[in-house]
């Protein structure tokens, strides 16, 4: 299976998950709105996800997948299963103790990560309670990440991509069916997060078993391979920690801004994360085991081919998405979120934040293409250094831009620092001879930009014509938004065919059975 086809499979399931995730956010905007309760849930939801990305998707995956893939390639299936079991045992016991400790000292954690809430006792107390409900999620989802690494290394991406669908279905059910069963809907949502993590773990464990890789629990031991995992994981953890610290500092700063600032950032980021999740996460997840196996086999030609395919695919989707988010963010937010407790003012503030985030959209995806080029070679130190530089840039710009643009300044600083990080990541690979920008990539990039600009101009003109629909009733709003979306898709695809940027047989090969 090629990188493109594997990414298409992963991206298809991720698209379903992201669409469900946005339905979840639409319900959440209607039920909770943008205010203090939503701010508390955002903190409660982000904190376990902060540690998940640090331990699981960040350091652990970056270290586990290359070692597991190389073991599978060189030593065979049984040795790979043994290593997976050893890693599973160490991860499970460590996280169990970690979650228990954090539950005891939760007020300290919330104080450290959202200290702007301290002045409001009710808000602080609610944030502590909700985070206690959500925090067990990290135990389940970190083990899910290990099982996903096993499946990805086997070339089985569908199950991994389908797992997040469970989270969104649980949260949608909580909002639709049980929102009023507790003190606030946020309490129900917080409990549903941890339940979803448990179901995800059961789902992927059964998928591994079905694939012939039954991961049995054993007493944790520091075997040579586990020691190697920890050694490689150290710099990766620091690197992931710097990236997550970047997001954490954004949250700390936002907690000092007026009420609803966190909500604006959350809703805008959720929409911006739709293409990042569908394309960027899919590419990064698929590319790491592909590169790891190719490097272990000494096939540098396949390494270069895989990276180039990933870059082309990422830019093909994200450049037009970024242009669309900059051209019509207000219409998107108005139609998708503005109802019940989500006001016109919230739409205005969220749409400006979305446009700022979108400026860095291609960079978020490109970073997920270039980072595996380091991790697959067991180099976790270099991305750490680059992440530290990006962190300094982000924090500096945060403190400057928030003075003039408030929460929009935080989003813009994130976009700029993302481009700085990508420039360093790509430059480092080029300098080492592990990658070079081929003429074909540069030509296609120029054509993607041209086609996206053409699309943006047409969408802006269409926007003027369907304004009366966007400002009408619910049915008219949906019709107006669909006209905007499909006119943009049609013009962009037509432009790519007209400029011979993409050929029909390439699309057929990508999406064929």
What does it look like?
The chain is mainly α and 513 residues long. It has two domains: 3-437, no CATH class; 439-513, no CATH class. 84% of the residues lie in helices and 0% in strands. The chain contains 20 helices and no strands. The mean pLDDT is 80.
Count of β-strands:
0
The chain-level structural class is mainly alpha
β-strand amount: under 5%
Biggest sheet features: none
- Note the gap between the termini: 11 Å
Q: Could you spell the SSE succession in H and E letters? A: HHHHHHHHHHHHHHHHHHHH
Radius of gyration: 22 Å
Average the pLDDT over all residues and give the rounded result: 80
Number of helices: 20
Helix-strand blueprint:
Layout: H1 3-32, H2 36-74, H3 77-104, H4 106-113, H5 121-134, H6 137-153, H7 158-177, H8 185-210, H9 224-254, H10 261-296, H11 300-327, H12 329-337, H13 344-358, H14 361-375, H15 381-405, H16 407-432, H17 439-465, H18 467-470, H19 474-498, H20 504-511
Helix pairs in contact: 1-7, 1-10, 2-3, 2-5, 2-6, 2-8, 2-9, 2-10, 3-6, 4-5, 5-8, 6-8, 7-8, 9-15, 10-11, 10-13, 10-14, 11-13, 11-14, 11-17, 12-13, 13-16, 14-16, 15-16, 17-19
Q: What can be said about this structure in brief?
A:
With 513 residues, the protein is mainly α. The protein has 20 helices and no strands.
Summary tags:
single chain; 513 residues; 2 domains; 20 helices; mainly alpha; globular
């Amino acid at each position: 299976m090629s990188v493109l086809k594997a990414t298409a499979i992963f991206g298809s399931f991720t698209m379903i998950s992201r669409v469900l995730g946005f339905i979840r956010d639409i319900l959440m905007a209607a039920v909770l709105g943008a205010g203090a309760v939503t701010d508390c849930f955002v903190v409660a939801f982000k904190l376990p996800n902060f540690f998940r990305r640090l331990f699981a998707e960040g350091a652990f995956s970056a270290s586990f997948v290359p070692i597991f893939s190389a073991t599978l390639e060189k030593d065979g299936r049984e040795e790979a299963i043994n290593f997976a079991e050893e890693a599973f045992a160490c991860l499970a016991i460590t996280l169990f103790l970690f979650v228990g400790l954090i539950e005891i000292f939760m007020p300290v954690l919330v104080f450290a990560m959202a200290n702007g809430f301290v002045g409001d006792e009710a808000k602080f107390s609610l944030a502590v309670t909700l985070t206690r409900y959500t925090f067990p999620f990290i135990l389940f989802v970190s083990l899910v990440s290990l099982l996903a690494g096993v499946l990805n290394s086997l070339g089985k991406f569908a199950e991994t991509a389908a797992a997040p669908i469970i989270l969104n279905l649980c949260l949608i059910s909580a909002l639709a069916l049980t929102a009023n069963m507790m003190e606030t809907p946020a309490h129900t949502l917080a409990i549903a997060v941890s339940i979803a993590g448990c179901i995800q773990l059961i789902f992927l464990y059964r998928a591994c078993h079905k694939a012939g890789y039954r991961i049995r629990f054993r007493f944790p031991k520091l075997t040579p391979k586990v020691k190697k995992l920890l050694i490689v994981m150290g710099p990766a953890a620091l690197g992931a920690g710097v990236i997550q610290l970047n997001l954490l500092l954004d949250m700390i700063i936002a907690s000092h801004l007026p009420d609803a600032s966190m909500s604006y950032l959350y809703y805008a980021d959720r929409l911006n994360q739709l293409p990042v999740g569908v394309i960027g996460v899919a590419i990064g997840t698929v590319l790491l085991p592909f590169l790891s196996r190719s490097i272990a086999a000494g096939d540098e030609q396949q390494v270069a081919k895989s990276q180039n395919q990933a870059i082309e695919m990422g830019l093909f989707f994200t450049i037009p998405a970024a242009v669309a988010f900059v051209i019509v963010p207000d219409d998107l937010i108005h139609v998708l979120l503005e109802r019940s407790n989500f006001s016109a003012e919230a739409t205005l503030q969220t749409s400006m934040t979305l446009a700022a985030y979108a400026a860095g959209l291609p960079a978020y995806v490109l970073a997920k293409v270039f980072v595996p080029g380091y991790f697959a070679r067991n180099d976790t130190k270099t991305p750490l250094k680059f992440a530290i530089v990006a962190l300094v840039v982000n924090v500096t710009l945060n403190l400057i831009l928030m003075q003039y643009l408030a929460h929009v300044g935080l989003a813009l600083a994130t976009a700029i620092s993302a481009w700085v990080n990508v420039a360093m990541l790509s430059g480092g690979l080029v300098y080492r001879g592990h990658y070079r920008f081929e003429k074909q990539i540069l030509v296609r990039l120029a054509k993607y930009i041209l086609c996206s600009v053409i699309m943006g101009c047409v969408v802006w003109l269409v926007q003027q014509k369907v304004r009366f629909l966007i400002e009408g009733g619910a049915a008219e709003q949906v019709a107006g938004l669909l006209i905007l979306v499909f006119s943009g898709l049609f013009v962009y695809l037509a432009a790519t065919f007209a400029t011979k940027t993409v050929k029909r047989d390439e699309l057929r090969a990508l999406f064929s059975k």
